[in-house]
Amino acid sequence: MNNQPNILVSSLKFRCSKCGKGHLFVEPNPYNYKKMADMYDNCSECGATFKSNEPGFYWGSMYVSYAITVGLVLFNLIWIHFFFGWDMWALILPNVILIVLLAPINFRLSRSLWLALNMRYLNKTQ
Questions:
Q1: What angle do CA 65, 70, 37 make, to 5 degrees?
Q2: Domains of the chain: which residue ranges?
Q3: Which end of the chain is more exposed for a tag (fewer CB within 10 A), N or C?
Q4: Rounded to an integer, what distance in angstroms lies between the CA atom of residue 18 and that of residue 121?
Q5: What is the pTM of this model?
Q6: pLDDT tens digits in sequence order for the chain, 126 residues long
């Protein structure tokens, strides 16, 4: 049996993808904008490193963030269409508000997923 936690569950909890226990971010509140991106260098539980030797390693998380945002907008557009029809403002305004409000959480989730996928499958960090 594999002792590694589920990547999606550990990423949603912003935990280490190797042990599922250590926290990724220094500040638990994603809406503290001054410390939103501050991450620990290593896992406090298993010692896995969250840093990469590659400069700009976390730039790849932008693609994950884009995919999350597109999925969220499409899901929202489908529901808005069924309840309100194709009114332009009913389509645009809720999505803009949703994207802006969820931006800090999306930022952290995309970083967490990017790190988890690279740690587990590509072994970019050790």
A1: 20
A2: 7-122
A3: N
A4: 11
A5: 0.84
A6: 467 788 889 999 999 988 889 999 999 999 999 999 999 999 998 888 888 777 888 898 999 999 999 999 999 888 888 887 777 777 788 889 999 999 999 999 999 999 998 887 766 544
